[in-house]
Amino acid sequence: MTDTEQIGRFRFMDAQRVNLDGFAVEDESLGLIAFDASADPEPSLSLDSDGAVIEMDGRAVAHFDLIDEFIARHGLDLSVAAEVMAMDDVDFARRIVDINVPREEIIRLTAGATPAKLARVLSRLRAAELVIAMTKMRARRTPSNQAHVTNRSDDPLLLAADAATAAAFGFREIETTVPVLGDAPSNAVAVSIGAAVGAVGVLVQCSVEEALELELGMAGLVSYAETVSIYGTEQIFIDGDDTPWSKALLTSAYASRGMKMRVTSGGGSEALMGAAENCSIFYLEARCVALARALGAQGVQNGGIDAASVSGSVPGGVRSMMAENLMVMMRNLEACTGNDALMSESEVRRTSRTHPIFIAGTDFVCSGFGSIQRYDNMFGPSQWNSEDIDDYLIMQRDWTVDGGLRSASEDQVAHLRRRAVLATRDVYRFLGLADFDDIWVEQAIDAAGSKDVPAADLMTPLDASRIIRQSKVTMVDVVAALDACGYTTEAERLLAMLHARVDGDYLHTAAIFDEDMNVMSLITDPNDYAGPGTGYAPTDDRLAQINAVRQQRSVADLRDEQAAAASSSFHVLGPATQGSDPTEVTIGVSAATGRAIWTTLSGLSVVDVLDELLAGLEEEGCRGRIIRINDTVDLGMIGLTAARLSGSGIGIGLQAKGTALIHRRDLSPLANLELYSVAPTVTPELYRALGINAGRHAKGATPEPLRNPYSDMAIEARFHTKVVSLVAIERTCLNPSLGPEDLELTR
């Protein structure tokens, strides 16, 4: 190679997926810096004699922008401001992670902190400290999760089926959106019906243009909102023809109709929109969170969101996204903690970004787990998608952590998808919105995504939405239609959601419903973490849900699986004796072979494996003899025992799981001539080659040693639990008093 060519190691490294990500050099002029930019103001607060704010974070009142003005008027508790602003930053930071300082005290102090003060304090927390702080500071005791349910064609039947599926997996909020704005009313109706089929008390949102979203909410077609966007610089508000006051009006409009509402921000958005004003990502988000508190919102969706890849591109950016979430909790708001936008093409980085939040627990671990496939996610691929649901469920099990989800069986999901699709079809027909043929119905029930529903008509949701708006269809109409069509349970569930809006209890911070329609919130389910032995822990029932992943298998399950492959090919001839034929090679098999184990880890039957070994020996002019070793599960001893009984002094050892070796009678038990240690990778051809080499050893030759084939399979992860069960089965078949037995193999 020349001096200008990459060496192989770096060619290999450059081909890995992490190198598809963009990584930025810190640049304050572009806002590409996570913490402590030189333009970030020094924390400060001054009041006049009447108690009005005249200076905040280095800016006099005469120079306040719209955000400063709103925060100064509505976002600070001035009764505690002097105390917290005078507090040493590190001292405040230590109080946040100190389990002996109650959450309520941190909330009290934070209420008087300016954005610059809070940004400065939280920037002092290391990653592990952020986990402890989040565990202590989240509002609701019980963690939860939110799903995205969308598809490329806005197919109502598929939306309903996927919403029911999401609810079955435990999501307590479902967010939909549209590729075509006009489809929004249909999407809202379909997802609401599907969610009601899947579980009780699932909240539904349709994320669209703010006026239309409010219209859907006022009609009762959705039950919460969160896409009221706020920003950390005045310029972006102006560009969007908005102000903090207009956002406050929208917030109050939702509240007045009994609808839960969060605002959305997320570090890096100002840099993405070219108006970061040389400030750090974290300081600008501190302004957003202070503004959210001042607006009267119930919570905040933040932690990067659409700009997650921007925040993630700079040093410390992932840490800043988690610190954003903590800041929301410290303002005593519901935290919907991002993880909804794909930050990285690297699965390691994706997991790394989410895992501390997952461990800590939060009101919503994801502000949109893509419960549908990536290609159907009209928000763009999420940090977690349907491709990852099994990974997430098993991660809960690994750590005994409640991440808000649960397993669901195929039968359960199939039943719910069918009911959701049929209910939606019948309601749409009853209300005169659309008609769906049987082909479309069946495709939607079975579909993994919209590509599996070629029967879908792209005009259907648009036409249905037009009728919904023109006819002023409300959720009361949907409830009546469900009841008339025989879906009484779902009608009652959606009616209960309307009743809840009148009660107003789910306007509490961090409110969700359990599956008895009880409100769980800051008020009814407050976080009481104060160190080990306190705070949230899964109940026994919830722990059983977390542990019961569909992939788990017991020894009994494996016995049943092996029994299904049983054959009558093995016949005991009697006790095995010493052979005298110099061409004889003895194949020693383990005690369970042909008794309780019939299939190897590679999926081959043990009969086929023995056939290949015998064929290889025959090619070399040797005679194979099969004996069963009944006193040990150790492969070395199985092979050595076979060699000692062999006329040639060469033996093959074979465990029922497929591990194999060639042994010689004069070697120690742990020595051998050749070994296949990785059973799942061994093919019929390789077993035949092992037989050939054993024959050559019997004739005194020195064949080229066989080696385990190349593989990048995670052998241990894929097979070791199965190995444990197989070995357990092997041990139950041991009978030391029986001694080795000659076997005959018949077909």
Describe the protein:
This protein is α/β, with parallel strands linked by helices and 747 residues long. It has 2 domains: 146-546, Diol/glycerol dehydratase, large subunit (TIM Barrel, Alpha-Beta Barrel), CATH 3.20.20; 557-745, Rossmann fold, CATH 3.40.50. 43% of the residues lie in helices and 11% in strands. A hairpin with a 5-residue loop joins strand 12 (512-513) and strand 13 (519-520). The chain is elongated and about 110 Å long.
Global structural class: alpha/beta
Number of helices: 29
- Rg over C-alpha atoms, rounded to the nearest angstrom: 33 Å
Main sheet? Answer: 7 strands, mixed
Low-confidence stretches: none
Give the CATH H-level superfamily of the largest domain: Diol/glycerol dehydratase, large subunit
Query: Please, how many domains?
Result: 2
Strand percentage lies at 5-15%
- Total strands: the figure is 20
Secondary structure topology:
Elements: H1 8-14, E1 45-47, E2 53-56, E3 59-60, H2 66-74, H3 78-85, H4 89-97, H5 103-110, H6 115-122, H7 127-137, E4 146-148, H8 156-168, E5 173-176, H9 184-198, E6 203-206, H10 210-218, E7 224-229, H11 234-239, H12 244-256, E8 260-264, H13 269-272, H14 281-295, E9 299-301, H15 308-311, H16 317-330, E10 334-336, H17 347-360, E11 367-370, H18 389-399, H19 410-430, H20 438-446, H21 459-470, H22 475-484, H23 488-503, E12 512-513, E13 519-520, H24 540-547, H25 555-563, E14 570-575, E15 584-589, H26 606-619, E16 623-628, H27 635-645, E17 650-654, E18 660-664, E19 674-676, H28 684-698, H29 715-732, E20 741-745
Parallel strand pairs: 4-5, 4-11, 5-6, 7-8, 8-9, 9-10, 15-16, 15-17
Antiparallel strand pairs: 1-2, 2-3, 12-13, 14-20, 16-20, 17-18, 18-19
Helix pairs in contact: 2-14, 4-6, 6-14, 7-16, 7-17, 8-9, 8-19, 9-19, 9-21, 9-23, 14-16, 19-20, 22-23, 26-28
